[in-house]
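Bifunctional aspartate kinase/homoserine dehydrogenase I structure dump, as promised
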Amino acid sequence: MQVFKFGGSSVANANNIKKVAAIVSNAAKKDSIVVVVSALGGITDLLLQAGKEAANGHTVYQEQIREIEQRHFEAVRALMPVASQSALLSLVKKATNEIEEICNGIFLLREITPKNLDRLAAYGEWLSSQIIAAAFKQGDMQVLWKDAREFIFTNSDFTNAEVDLAITEKEIRKYFKENKSNVFVVPGFIGRDGNGVTTTLGRGGSDYTAALIAAAVDATSLQVWKDVNGMMTADPRMAPNAKVIEHISYSEAMELSHFGAKVLYPPTIQPVMSKNIPLYVKNTFAPEMPGTIVGGKSKELKTIREHIVSGISSVNNIALISLEGSGMIGIPGFSKRLFEALSQERINVVLITQSSSEHSICVAIDQRYLERARLVVDKAFADEILLKKVEPLKVETNLSIVALVGEQMKSLPGVSGRMFGAMGRNGINIRAIAQGSSEKNISTVIATDDVRKAINVLHEEFFETSYKQLNLFIMGLGNVGAKLMDQLKQQHAFLKQHLKLNVSVVGISNSRKMLFKEHGISLSGWKESLAAGEPASLSDFTNEIIKRNLRNSIFVDVTANQEVAKAYGKLLQKSISVVACNKIAAASPFTEYKKLKELAHVYNARFLFETNVGAALPVIGTLNDLRRSGDEIKSIQAVLSGTLNFVFNHYDGTRKFAEVVKQAQEEGYTEPDPRLDLSGVDVMRKILILARESGFELEMEDIVNHSFMPASCMKGSVEEFYKCMAAEEAHFSNLLDAARADNSQLKFVAELKDGKASVGLQHIKPGNDLYHLYGKDNVVLFYTARYPEQPLVIKGAGAGADVTASGVFADIMRAANE
Ligand SMILES: NC(=O)C1=CN([C@@H]2O[C@H](COP(=O)(O)OP(=O)(O)OC[C@H]3O[C@@H](n4cnc5c(N)ncnc54)[C@H](O)[C@@H]3O)[C@@H](O)[C@H]2O)C=CC1
Ligand SMILES: N[C@@H](CC=O)C(=O)O
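structure tokens r here:
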């Protein structure tokens, strides 16, 4: 004999019931089947609402009862031939009349009791089972209908009654021994107490009815048919990549169902586990799918199992209550009194942690019972609170529990480390932790706002063999930003295939417009979409990043804007990594630069700015590697301006100096404001950043700038700057002539020596390491303790949108792989 249970959505209407009939008819060809059914989807809620509306004096309950009636009438008419409908229609009518009479009574009294609620709710399963049994009889099945109240006996704890297992098992066995049929149909969820009054087994209790029957008759299997393909590794509404769990042990299934996986009603597992009956979770709408097998032989489990963790579950509406005080240390009985107080109020304890110092006990409860808990606990410890041995109950709300479940976790060190590491890198603050010694479940209490992110982060960490999701927010879509978008588009498939990274650009902004798309902005049509976006606002953009709270979020600053640089701190504090080619933050006052680094460290985020010096050349990374390995930077000599190198390489007297500068700007080497390059400020920023990364606490004001520009050209607008350079052509040609006369080339050189930095134009002779530097190249010479005479040299293109974008891209990959 097998027991099949069909849930509310599986029997929501006639079409679905026909699918159920096909499944049962097929199975009944080989075995005798007990079918336990829920109420038609939504009917239990309607019944309870009708009762509550009546108690509140609202006549809307009458409409709700008509709706209940109509739903059942429709099912009867669609399932039964006209000639056989009348008996069933009058059964529905009789039942809805009774429901109405009960509600009329409640309406008059303006009072509803748990007993009445159970009486009302029971009509749902009773009616559905009658209709389904009649529908089955239309086919080739021999069918017996049986009211579960005749063999499920409970106490009188209405709405959540406790089953008397011994009598129930005996009565079920007796019935199925004495009655033979191909198919039995039984209403789930309902039972009766010692006085013969109807009770219910708690919401979802039909699963339990089926499990009780399966255990009592020693069924070969229990099949729970749902509208999902099985138990999932996580709630698919939260984690779109959740997968069906093929095979899971009873205790894992129990842990998962206790912690919010609504697929199985928690008490369901115990009866089948005690008899080692395999439980299948299957999909009524895709019966060909294998579903999930709960239970079975452990040997089989180990070979099938791919993952250390079986599933991730969560439960919302949690409050943490903490009892703290120095008076608790070393004195037995505090926890006993706390739990007794909670139990008196029938407050269920969901999770417990106690510090080894015994200074505090922290308990997670359903948030609905918070006020009751506060009152009862403060009352229980009133004397100690008065004597200041214990503090009044501390309370935190809007929390959730997210738990990893898996039997294999206990044999593997490092699972909790991976769990906390992944959550920490994503800025998820863990308020409390619990892990039982069985190590089947590691539970964390976190803010409810972080639940979606946490589930996805953990799913990625423990289940994603396919890919890791990366969410980018890019601000600044000018020369460099646009190239970055091109490169992301070009590499998208490669990253997914080879690095298992799915990169989505979720937000973009230039100074005019901004745009967000959670599942990724099209990398082909982004320009048009951005043009149609909403007006840009830095604060709205950054707030939106925080609000979206997506895992593996990276903010990419491709502007040259000071205000944008000021927003990094706010993002880092939310564990959102920052990748910047904007140099303003790293060249800001030392305290601010240091603070950003500290924030990144404290909040487990990355603050990366490799392109601040030498575009994509590995300058900062190399410097960091040298220092990390214990080397010491003695001095640096460098040509760090692609623009100035380009200008002095191309200025040969055949064209005006201003024209060559214009060409550098047009080719995308200059800063958005080219005066920053020509004045030497851009190079000052770069040597400042190198000095700081070398360990020196320098400020911009400490850097000596031997500017070669006429002071008059640095006043006014960019247009006036160009006009002034044209007018001062003689000044620039004199510089060139002097260098030629000295058999030298002009190079704008940055130096750091003995903690002091300077920048300025120099005559560089053939043979000098800085001499052979073409186009827009940069060169950096590091003299260190380990490179005392022959420097470590880094050389190559130091400006240009394409190379800079590739440097930004590389920083994004570094942040992603952290
Ligand atoms: N061009 C190069 O070779 C290199 C450039 N960089 C840095 O790259 C950055 C960008 O340079 P380019 O792309 O050439 O500049 P760009 O002027 O072409 O682009 C800047 C973009 O930032 C946007 N923007 C400015 N303020 C904004 C705000 N408040 N909110 C949103 N968007 C804003 C502008 O609308 C524009 O789309 C600069 O910081 C520069 O120092 C760094 C290394 C090399
Ligand atoms: N404007 C800069 C670009 C890179 O930082 C330069 O010319 O070097």
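Residues 681 and 705 are 8 Å apart (CA to CA).
lmk if u need the other ones
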